[in-house]
Amino acid sequence: EQAKKMGVLVSDVFNTLSTFLGSSYVNDFNLYGRNFRVMSQADSSYRSSLAGIEKFYVRNNQGNMIPLGSLITARVIETPAVISHYDIYRSIEITGTSKPGYSSGQAIEALQQVAKTLPAGYGYEFSGMSREEIAAGSQQTKIFFISVVFVFLFLVALYESWGVPFSVLFAVPIGAFGSILTLTLLPNLSNNVYAQIGLITLIGLAAKNAILIVEFAKERVDRGIPLIKSTLDAVKLRLRPILMTSMAFILGVLPLAFSTGAGAQARSTIGWTVLGGMLAATLLAIFIVPVLFVLISRLAYGKKKLETLEQRA
Q1: pTM
Q2: What is the pLDDT of residues 151-207, one digit of tens each?
Q3: Are strands 89-90 and 65-67 parallel, antiparallel or unpaired?
Q4: Alpha-helix residue ranges (DSSP H) falling in the chain
Q5: Cα 55 to Cα 65: distance, rounded to the nearest angstrom
């Protein structure tokens, strides 16, 4: 109302405040072979306090200069410099890391337990790496299951049987048991994404030793040799290759397990996960896989079919 009485546009008042307190681009000019930009702005001494606003002037519709002090009033209001929002809601960001000896998953679980005590009207969400870790953690079981299914289908195509591949796949839990036991016994390691990568790798590594036994035994059974004799022959002939290849791999990942320097935690986690799993798959699976092959072959082939194969031989 005061600006209307004095013939001043409200937009001119805002433009004047914006120019003096902020800045306003005027034009460019060349001098001494250089290009200079002209910016209009009040001197710093007139922008240091609210009293300086009274010395700013704006032109009315009659061409007269009107002081802004006669048009506006000012008061100090304390507010945060930055107000953060997350999904429209005002938020406070908390950044931290887990203590030594605890995994990031344990830290996230602890925060979720604490967040249950928040008062009504408050909520929480994870963002950044924590959000991605939670999303990836829910897919771990799916990825592991899909990997096992693909290995099973490849073995079905290899052996042309739906039952025999189970004697190979049952070696995978043995390797996973060795990995989990290793991670449990080493407190400085945690079941993070690198350990999960090692578990996926063990599906093929643990199955490799079982394939060396099962494939040779199945070939002999198909030729009509008795099941027990075929299995024992396969174990005797394949024991040395299994031990040689397994020990070569175990010794090969020792530098990875005992790595130091930048990124050593990630390399050590993968190394110990695979190393523990291969030790279990080598020391335990060579005794369990032959037994499983005999039991599953009797179910898959049937007693009559095994007798027929032996009579042909």
Answers
A1: 0.52
A2: 788 878 877 777 777 777 777 788 888 888 888 887 777 777 777 778 877 877 777
A3: unpaired
A4: 2-5, 10-17, 104-115, 128-137, 140-159, 165-169, 171-185, 193-222, 227-252, 254-257, 264-283, 285-301, 303-312
A5: 11
Residue found by looking up tokens 């024992």 in the block: 232
One-letter amino acid identity for 182?
T
Residue with tokens 């043995």: 174
Name the pLDDT band for 302 (thresholds 50, 70, 90): low
Q: Which of 264, 306, 38, 4 is nearest to 164 (CA)?
A: 306
Between CA 215 and CA 38 the distance in angstroms is 84
Instruction: Give the whole-angstrom CA distance, residue 13 versus residue 4.
Output: 12
**SS3 state of residue 23:** coil
Residue written as token pair 């203590």: 99
Sequence-ordered alpha helix ranges (H) in 18-139: 104-115, 128-137
Q: Distance between CA 214 and CA 212 in Å, rounded?
A: 6
For residue 250, give the 3-state DSSP assignment.
Answer: helix
Q: What is the dihedral of CA 115, 116, 122, 127, to 10 degrees?
A: 40
Q: What count of Cα atoms within 13 Å lies in the side-chain half-sphere of residue 54?
A: 7
Q: How far apart are CA 273 and CA 195, in angstroms?
A: 6
